[in-house]
Design goal:
The complex is a heterodimer of chains A (380) and B (291). Chain A is built from twelve helices and 18 strands. The mean pLDDT of chain A is 93. The two termini of chain A are 39 Å apart. In chain A, strands 7, 8, 9, 10, 11 and 12 form a six-stranded antiparallel β-sheet that branches. A four-stranded antiparallel β-sheet of chain A has the order 1-6-2-3, covered by helices on one side. With 380 residues, chain A is an alpha+beta fold. In chain A, a hairpin with a 4-residue loop joins strand 7 and strand 8. Chain B is of the alpha/beta class and 291 residues long. Chain B folds into two domains: 111 residues, Rossmann fold, CATH 3.40.50.720; 152 residues, Rossmann fold (3-Layer(aba) Sandwich), CATH 3.40.50. Chain B has nine helices and 13 strands. In chain B, the strands form two sheets. In chain B, strands 3-4-2-1-5-6-7 form a seven-stranded mixed β-sheet, sandwiched between helices. Chain B has a six-stranded mixed β-sheet with strand order 9-8-11-10-12-13, with helices on both faces. In chain B, strand 3 and strand 4 form a beta hairpin. The model of chain B has no long low-confidence stretch (mean pLDDT 96). The chains are: A alpha+beta (380), B alpha/beta (291).
Chain lengths: 380, 291
């Protein structure tokens, strides 16, 4: 789960890492009031889950509260990578002396949290890695010992040559590590980590992703979720324990199992069609899940054909067929439906579906070809 | 032979009294798996499908000599259950549970490597050596004993592929679902190493998906060290970047983990990659003949 910069900074502040004073504004007047209270030059930052905010014009300086109001007016409602800006972070500006990068990521290859630091702060770390990999120090942290002081010192010394600065940045690095571990993060970045004219360190920008599997340990994180950034269908899917990702095509698919669901999309493409979505109804599916799945598919106006691909194992084919029958009647589905079923209780499922005049395929390829052939032919 | 599980497997079911645990205990017994014990804390003394239930793994292992375990335990308790199984002396742990915190997996991974425990999963459909033993939730009917090893990050996609293999006359030595999470106990290379040393396995089908670099690492390994024929399939060629496709591990992050880079890596290691699962058997036939 992604959280916003302002939320990420609240996490950091709890671990003794300095962030600029400020607050969140949703209107130009709120931005004015925050700037007035701060009484300093302010920076106004769009709160969106997208990189390149600065380039897109989503970050602006303002010297007076009036100017803050004007700049806020300009940024609110602007689109950054297709996301409309509805929240701003208004902060006291910092006089930047130098910028560096400090981040942690849960790394699949080393299977450890990997610390990354770079004296080339302020730019995207992937870009630094591509262009000047020698400017990054990576260190896989032992998950049992954590970030030992000797290693924190080594990382700090890669960032700064001045002893005072090394000493001052060490608690920031260990604080970042503790924050990462205690909150089950999958990514935590301070970029840039700024030293101001007085030698004080500030986390000027921050990004935190939380491990979805870790959320169960932190029920309080649920309130950090912004329901507006999820497509409405994706939210309904999450709440009914389905995984759904909307795509641009016109053949909707409803599949049991994530791997098979991805494959179904690939096979649709292979035979010349375009998948409208990824949808995994999961393992032990009951008829209600199928109804919910179709409810979600029904909201997509691009859909011209609905393809079911069920490989019965723990999923019983007759459960899926029951759900499909229920959904077609209850939701008044007029879109043509193509079904592929094989495995547990396949015969029972065939009986249910043939009573409704639905043809059942046993091969995925045949079912997909049939769905592709139907596109454009049966517009209703 | 075969890998991971066989007729010597004496299975302990952790979470045996739950809905899934009891259902699949019945299925595994029906397949012929030697299920010797179950564990649910506080429910010792009961039986499930005739299998004695113990309070903890240590007692179960002492009384029955169980050497493998399977977990049907909710994610909040699964880390502890894996820990407990290892401490009790279990050698092979198959984790069906989905949703174990990644940080816990990081610790478990390195801790288990200190000993000689094999962890399959988490988020795995299990392992089957057809005709010998099934430790998992895989539908028994599609498998057939034979010489093809199957290793996959997925569940139902594996069934699809195995179904195609069996229909084409290719039986399987062992099929292992290594799991769909970001950090898993046994990765492709580990499974390939086991298949390399297994005299019953003559060829391998590798089923990967988007996310991470395990398939690329496997390609490197195959190129340098693996001598048996391999064919592959990679799911998610049409998956958009940055979106999690069901499995926690199935996500293209930045430019890393795309299907195309995995397919390229495998092809450059001499591994043919099927465009769709239905083409795997013919590709396998050709690869075995030309090997």
């Amino acid at each position: 789960m992604k959280i916003y910069e302002y939320q990420a900074k609240q996490f950091l502040a709890r671990y003794g890492i300095k962030v600029q004073p400020g607050d969140v504004a949703e209107t130009p007047d709120e931005a004015y009031r925050i700037a007035e209270q701060l009484g300093t030059e302010v920076v106004i930052k769009a709160q969106v889950h997208a990189g390149g905010r600065g380039k897109a014009g989503g970050i602006k300086l303002a010297r007076t509260p009036e100017e803050a109001r004007e700049k806020a007016e300009a940024i609110l409602g602007m689109k950054i990578k297709d996301i409309t800006v509805s929240k701003l972070l208004v902060l006291s500006a910092v006089d930047i002396e130098s910028e560096s990068y400090a981040g942690l990521v849960m790394d699949r290859r080393t299977k450890k949290p990997v610390f990354m630091v770079s004296p080339a702060g302020g730019i995207d770390i992937e870009q630094i890695a591509r262009k000047t990999p020698e400017k990054i120090l990576k260190y896989p942290v032992d998950p049992f010992f954590g970030l030992m002081p000797s290693k924190a010192r080594e990382l700090a010394s890669f960032l700064y040559s001045d002893r005072q600065q090394v000493k001052r940045v060490m608690p920031i690095l260990s604080g970042l590590y503790r924050m990462f571990i205690e909150n089950d993060c999958s990514l935590a970045e301070i970029n840039p980590l700024v030293v101001d004219k007085n030698g004080i360190f500030w986390a000027v920008d921050a990004k935190i992703n939380l491990d979805d599997n870790g959320l169960s340990r932190h029920p309080e994180f649920e309130k950090l979720r912004d329901p507006e950034i999820e497509a409405p269908q994706e939210r309904v899917a999450r709440e009914s324990n389905l995984s759904y990702v909307k795509l641009e095509g016109n053949i909707a698919c409803c599949v049991n199992g994530a791997g098979l669901a991805m494959t179904t999309m690939d096979v649709i493409k292979y035979y010349g069609g375009e998948p409208a979505n990824f949808l995994d109804i999961g393992g032990s599916s009951n008829p209600k899940k199928v109804v919910n799945a179709l409810r979600i598919i029904k909201t997509d106006p691009n859909v011209e054909v609905i393809l079911f691909n069920i490989f019965g194992g723990i999923t019983r084919c007759d459960d899926v067929a029951e759900g499909l029958k229920e959904a077609i009647l209850e939701l008044n589905i007029g879109t043509p439906v193509v079904v592929r079923l094989t495995g547990t209780n396949e015969q029972e499922a065939r009986k249910i579906l043939s009573s409704m005049g639905i043809e059942v395929h046993t091969s995925m390829d045949e079912a997909v070809k049939c769905a592709v052939a139907l596109v454009g032919k049966e517009r209703r | 032979m075969s890998i991971i599980v066989d007729e010597r497997t004496k299975l302990l079911v952790q979470g045996i009294t739950g809905r899934d645990g009891s259902f699949h205990t019945k299925q595994m017994l029906a397949y012929g798996t030697d299920v010797v014990a179950g564990v649910t804390p506080g429910k010792d003394g009961q039986t499930v499908e005739g299998v004695p239930v113990f309070d903890n793994c240590r007692e179960a292992v002492e009384s029955t000599g169980a050497n493998a375990s399977i977990l049907f335990v909710p994610p909040a308790f699964a880390t502890d259950a894996i820990f407990e199984a290892k401490e009790a002396g279990i050698e092979t742990i198959v984790c069906i549970t989905e949703g174990i915190p990644t940080l816990d997996m990081s610790k478990l991974y390195w801790w288990l490597r200190l000993g000689s425990v094999t962890l399959i999963g988490p988020n795995s459909p299990g392992v089957i050596s057809p005709g010998k033993s099934k430790v998992g939730i895989l539908p028994s009917g599609i498998f057939k004993r034979g010489a093809v090893g199957v290793v996959s990050r997925s569940g139902t996609l594996t069934y699809e592929v195995v179904h195609n293999l069996t229909q084409a006359g290719f039986g399987q030595s062992t099929c292992v679902g290594i799991g769909g999470d970001q950090i898993i106990g046994t990765n492709f290379i580990d499974a390939l190493e086991m298949f390399a040393g297994d005299d019953e396995t003559e060829a391998v089908v590798l089923i990967g998906e988007i996310g991470g670099t395990d398939e690329q690492d496997a390609a490197e390994y195959i190129k340098s060290d693996f001598r048996k024929p391999v064919v592959a399939f990679i799911a998610g060629q049409t998956a958009p970047p940055g979106k999690r496709m069901g499995h926690a591990g199935a996500i293209i992050s930045g430019s890393e983990g795309t299907a195309i880079e995995k397919i390229e890596a495998l092809k450059s290691a001499g591994v043919p990659v099927a465009p769709v699962p239905s083409r795997i058997p013919e590709l396998l036939k050709k690869t075995v003949e030309n090997h």
